[in-house]
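Example 3.2
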Amino acid sequence: MSAFDLSDDYERELVRVVERIRTMPLTRLAACSDDVFGLCGSLADLARESGSALPGAQGLPRLGDHALPDQLQVLGMEIAAIGDPSTITRAHSMLAEVRKALP
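Structure, written as tokens:
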């Protein structure tokens, strides 16, 4: 798989997860918000490890549940901007794992 294909596949997965979370009723989102915020933290840590200026999970603010899709999208796009294939592969796996666990 080329780097271009990997990036496209990653961005499709990111959009898929973000839209699924965005369209959840808030009561359902509340049931999985800790997992989604955990994913945001994992992506922030991964971005930091890969050279991003992000502060990592410790500096990630816990916003309201309604803001989780936007927070996830921003962090996901930070990973895409890094462009490192191994980082993108790890982030893709994280996204897919959480998506499969969503209610």
